[in-house]
Every structure is written in C-alpha cells, then in structure tokens.
Automatic annotation (TrEMBL):
Lineage: Bacteria, Bacillati, Bacillota, Bacilli, Bacillales
PANTHER family, alphabetized: BCDNA.GH03377
Protein's UniProt name: Dehydrogenase
Domain Gfo/Idh/MocA-like oxidoreductase N-terminal: 6-127
Pfam family, one: GFO_IDH_MocA
Amino acid sequence: MSKKIIRFGVIGCGLMGKEFASAAARWCHLNVDFEPKIVAVCDANPEAAKWFQEKVPSVVKATTDYKELLADPEIDAIYCAVPHNLHTQIYVDIIRAGKHLLGEKPFGIDKEANQIIVDEVAKHPDVLVRCSSEFPFYPGAYRLGQWIREGRFGTIMEVEAGFWHSSDLDPRKAINWKRRISTNGEYGCMGDLGMHVMHMPLRFGWKPSNVRSLLTKVVKERPDHTGNLVPCETWDNAILACEVKTEDQQFPMILSTKRIAPGHANTWFLRVTGTDFSAEFSTKNPKQIASLPYTPGSEQAWHITDVPYQSGYSTITGGIFEFGFSDSILQMWAAFCDEIVNRDAMQQPFRCATPEEALASHEVFTAALESERTGQTVTLSGRD
C-alpha cells in the first residue's frame, strides 16, 4: 500500500511529545494509507530534544527556536505541547506559517487568548487546526458516540461527563507550572482537563446555556524547588452544574474535572440517560460498556458488554485484546492525519476536537469562574 507521508515537527519535547513519537513508531499497527513522520523537534531546553534524536530515527533537526520549524518547507504539520501561557503566540505563528496544527488544550490561557487563535484560524481556511483529546477514541466511548448519532436515547434526561485523577493527592508533590496562574491560567483543572470532558458533549450539540460552579483548592500550599512552601494559585477540582437547551430538548448536564480524586489514576467517563436508552462508559473499566434499552412496560436491566479492540481505524490487533491509553493516542493521531489527507472524505466520522469546540469550552470555563466569584448561576453569552 502506497502511503501519503505527513512530515511533522514537534514543539514541546515533554511527556506528550514523547507519547506522539511513540504512537508514530507504532503506525504499522494501523490499516491506513497515510503516515506521520517526525522530522524535526523543538524545545527551549536542548536536553529535552535529545530523547527524540536518540530514539526517533526520522528526526533530522533539533532546535530551541520554534520559528526554524515554521520556516522549513520540509515540514507539513506541527504537534505543539507547551504551557498554556505560550499557546497564543506559538499557535498563531504556526497557523500563519501554513502548517497544520494539532495543539494541546485549552487553546489559550483564557477566553481572550483563545479568541485570538480562533480569529487566526478563520483567516487560514486551508490550514487544519485541531485540539488534542484522545479519550473519545476508546472503543467503548466510540460506540457510545455511534449510539448518540443514531438517536437511540429518545428524550435525554441527564448527561454526566468527567475526568478524574489523583496525581496531586500527595501534598508533598512539588509545585509546577500548572499550579500558577501566570502559566496555567485561572481555570486551573478546568483548563488542564476540561476539553477532554467537553469534547463529546459539544460534538453532539450539548452546549451549556448556563453554569453553576463549585470550585475547590484542596492542597493550598506545595514545596518549591528549595523545599519552601508556596501558595497553589489554581483550582484542584471543579464541578459544573449546567443546563442544556437544544431545539427540541432540555436537560441537566454535570461536568467535573478533578486533579485530586482518591482512587482514580486517570479516569474519563461519559453517562447519558434517556427515556428509550441509557449508556455509560468509563476508562476505569476500559473493556466494558454498559447500556439499558427500555420499552414501556418492559423490565429494566443494565447490559454489560465487553467491547472489542476496534475503534475508529482498523488495526492488526484482534478484538480479543485490550485497548489502552497509548492506543487512544494512536487513534486520535490517525483521525488528525486522515482529515489532513482526506478532509470531508475521512475514513470514519469522528474528528478531533475543533477550534470552535475549544472556544465553547472557554466560554463555559469563564462562566464557571464568574459563578465561583458571585455564587450565582451564570448565563452563557448568546444563550437563553
């Protein structure tokens, strides 16, 4: 099979940059006719790029100046994973340079910064810009999305979506950039985790019309690099009670993002309750999806099904094997590359998160901050 090669540069050589490189190395796992090749990397710390130079044979350039990647005609697309305060300038420069962009959430440190990125996207319609969000590509989540598209749920009564982990449960963990407003922004855990939570609801038109938030700082101080305790400025956990109003339905939706959720290593979940059908999926039990079909007068019984390995793109792996986080990253990258090559003729219908969805998430998080300050339910702009 002749494959279309997409030449990538990576800006930000930390954990997620390495995850992308590992996914690219497993591309033979997929049955597709396109392939990413990482040819250049950039990080402000030269030491961070050494891993790529040692582990990724296709890398021919490493630099501390990201503009060198943008000026290189041998690079088609960029994956960018940098702190939130750097998003606006770097993302805008990538888009202006005509490079396709898959950027990390939240696409700007705040709503104003995000709007600058969205405005630049509108000026360059030929450049594909998407936001990283891999969890909807788990087979169980992907199937739940298919059920939503098929309209199985009847009248939706309630939706709950969340992303919980416990990496910050230990108060001895040193403070980092995500605990500082100057680098992470006021959103705190919402900016860091919220796009994952909102990706699928927004994709299906479930944009909140109002928000009442409960935001908490669980660990208020952490040691710095010298061991002295310094303030944690950002929110650890957030619960957002929202109301969704579509053309034909109205229902409550609970969105939650938690950095401190004891017992949860990395749990993403979505639950949809309807009059005809209900379903839920959680990465806590990644092999299973639960569903409850209902017809009036019949018994009510949850069905627990082991879902096969298959996600959006077919692989060499048989259905009896288990799917994991690295597989979801591989599937997300496949969706991004598929859209670069085939645009509206993608091999499957689920796209990566769009700039418009990132903008909608900023509107929700900004309203959540206002709700926290006022103690009131906040109506989103342009909504009833």
